[in-house]
Every structure is written in C-alpha cells, then in structure tokens.
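Today's session is about reading a structure prediction critically. Students often jump straight to the picture, but the first step is always the sequence itself: look for stretches that repeat, for charged clusters, for runs of hydrophobic residues. Only then move on to the predicted structure, which in these notes is written as discrete structure tokens rather than atom positions. Here is the chain we will use throughout the hour.
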Amino acid sequence: MLCHVGTRAIINRPYTETINKRPILLALVKERYGIKMKITRKILLASLCIIILASIGISGLASGITVRLNGETLTFDQPPIIQEGRTLVPLRVIFEALGATVDWEQSTQTVTAVRDGVTVTMKIGSSVFYRNGQEFTLDVPARVVNNRTLVPARAVAESFGADVQWNQEAQTVFITTSEIAQGQETHDTVRATIVMEDGGIIVLELYPHLAPQSVSNFVYLAQEGFYDGLKFHRIISGFMVQGGCPFGTGTGGPGYTIKGEFALNGIENDLKHERGVISMARSNAFDSAGSQFFIMHDDVDSLDGQYAAFGRVAEGMEVVDRIAATPNSGSNGAVAPENMPVISSITIYSNITLPEPNRL
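Below is the predicted structure for this chain, in token form.
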C-alpha cells in the first residue's frame, strides 16, 4: 500500500480554521491537553497512513520475494508476504506446483491437499495443520489476502517432503522436491547458493563423497566469508568461468593448499567436466589448489582426471551463461577489472557437518 501525501497546493495551505470547524478529534485533544494546534492537511494524511500501516502490520506488506521450485521461478497473482518474520506464499500455487490436488471447503474455511497418499489440511486462522491426521504447529496461521490463502512456505513444502531453504540476501525461497534433491545419489549432498552482485543466483550441489577435501575447503571458505566480494577474473565462453582469487589476477589463494582429488593424483573421482560442473583450479603442481574454482560452460573431457571436480550447478545455468558472455582480452580469458562479475555472497546449506579442510 502506498500513501501519497499531499500535492503542492495542499502542502502550502495550512489548516487554520477556527476550533468549531476543526475535526472533533482535534477539538477534543485541545480541550483535554490545552494544546494550541496548527496542523496541516499533510500531517493529517501522513498520520492516516501510519494508522493504516499499523493496523495491517508493516511486516505484512508485499516483500518482493521470489520462490523457486526445482530451479523454476513460480508466479503468483498475489505476491508472497513477510508476516512475523515468516514468508507466506499462496497455498494453492505451491501445492499444485508440488503435484498435489487441492480442495477448498468454504463452510469450514479449510484447504485440503492430497498427493501420493499424503493428505494435508489447513484451516484459515488456525495455528495448527494436519498431515495424515497428525497435528503440527504453524509459526504463523494461514490467512486470506486478496481472496488468496497464504501460508508459511516451509510448512507447505515440507509437508510433501520437499527441502526448503531461505536466502536472506537474495530474498529467495528455494524449494527442492525430494526426488530432485536425492537425484540418482544415495549420498549426502551439500548445497551452496552463489548470489552475484547483479542479483543473479547460482545454486550448486556439492559432492563430499567424491571430493571430500575440495568440498570441505569450498564450504569452509564460503562460511568464513572469503568469497564475498571476489570476482570471476578469467572467462572463456564455451569453456569455463573462473573465480575465487582474492587479488582478481589468478595468482592468489587462502594461504594454504589442499590435496588434488583427481585420478592423475591417485584419487578416484569419476565426476566428468561437463557443462555446469564446478572444479578446483590449480597450477602445474597437483596439490596446489586453494580457493580458486571454475564452472564449466561446456563439456571438456580433456580435463577429466586432471582437476578435482566436486559438484555441479543445480539451478542458475543462465547466470553462468551471462557470466560467460563477459568480454575478455584474449584466448587466456583475462577480464578487465571493471568488467569482472562480482560474487556478493555464498551461502551453504547442509544436513551434515563437514570438517575443516586438511591444509598442506
């Protein structure tokens, strides 16, 4: 809601009518407290705005947040909102995107969603919901906004086994269904969200079972904020985009190196350097990787077995494509400092605790 306060004509016209012509409220205030008042219409309108905002709660305003399900951005006719620190989303859109059938019972103000033997019921205004008859508590009750039922995103998605992550900086909810999250792997995976300075988002799946030192190192540096503000300094379209150098020159690192986890160095790692795969950059020495990494823009099998691939892009290859289109100065991919795409932050999500890397 926007409160437009005054035009020039109104602002410049003081409210100078006599007391018997003023609003009753102002007269009562003057009578009660003996205050001499000279109030403009601008102040009155501004006060009205404050009252309205207070009545609905500032946190209930549309927040401009994004919801992405398995890499696809969902669209809503009623935008998500923030309520009491929780993200509320239109229930029907989320449930149907998750493949559930939805039924609305007007008389009881109850929503029922069913998918694969799971039944979820939620009632407007209630702080509880039911999954196959079992009661759960909502942080914020379901509510109706512009004839749309809004509920906490996490409760809705997790009801059907989806993983839900929130990135504060990107103001984005990431929902991954269990079948996508598990993929073909039975191992734990770690997810990392790269937020670019231009707002682009790249979500990575990292594989500690294939390259434990590379993953632990990347996670450790990300959680320490090492990558925040660093740039992609070497970009070759059709090959790869490289970042993670603290100097932006390709010569820097974190002050240590880690073991190179690839076949040529005696470590079994069968992750191929295909489009979207992330791998550790290094010098000629096998154990020289530190903080620099590269994301494949295309398949290059000549790198297989020679570099430590440790994950892949799960969402946001269009952002990698945009980075790859950055002008460079030649075949080696050097980028002018003013053109280097900037990493704003990297956030890690994991259901396992990783140790710090073994520094060499």
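Discussion point for the tutorial: The longest strand covers residues 343-350.
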